[in-house]
Amino acid sequence: MVLKIESNVKLSFGEMYVVIYQSGPHLPYVILDAGYGNDSSVWEKTAGEIGEFANVIVYDRAGVGKSSNSCHPRTAFWMAEELYEIMENLDIDSPILAGHSYGGVIHRVLADRYPTKTAGLVLIDSTPHDYQNRFLPNMSEAFQNSYYSQFTKEGNAENFKESLKQLQNCSNLLDVPVTVLSAGKKQHYNESSQTLWHDMQREMLQITKSRSTFLIAEHSGHFIQREQPEVVIDAVRSMVISLMKNDEEKRQV
């Protein structure tokens, strides 16, 4: 039975709205992180399902949804630090980090800073560090204008640009499994831009020396967790099963 617990966690910079799906004390934790400007409701089709085989954390980042504002700059570095403070506050050690879009940026920065505190990464159509200078110029002027006009909810465009620089500066070669999910039906993408997107997503496998997996959600746009939730659920399940099997083998040695 999955127990759903909603709470406001008091941290050094304010209060964060956190939802925990508890399944059992011996199951691993999975932290789900939304994209830029989105709150935890984007996981409504996946969190409970993942909670059937793992303990799950979803939360609203500072200034979004039901969480209070933060005094920290709205960059990936500080958002990763705030998430790490949640982990410490709730005594969660080495969770699987599953981040969508900008949430994947935050998780990669956290994993780079705290490599021993991360069990694995599931990157869900995550933003590449070179998105703005390598991918965006291939898109129409209208698309680019729409892209830059979105930065009003969590800092501004300069904060986001700084976050991508922070991601680029991540230098640790991780030793944890990484699964990359790439959306196969991106809105406004032609064949060449869709191919480039998949190539850039596939390149993220290079951040680890451990097992890595690349999957395309053929029938999904950017929000894979909403359009093809089973793809996200299955990817997380596979990683949970693999990690639990490895832990069991270590205990038997």
Automatic annotation (TrEMBL):
Keyword Hydrolase: yes
Origin: domain of life: Bacteria
Keywords per UniProt: Hydrolase
Domain annotation AB hydrolase-1: ranges: 31-148
Keyword Transmembrane helix on entry: no
GO MF terms, alphabetically ordered: hydrolase activity
Protein name in the entry: Alpha/beta fold hydrolase
Species: Metabacillus lacus
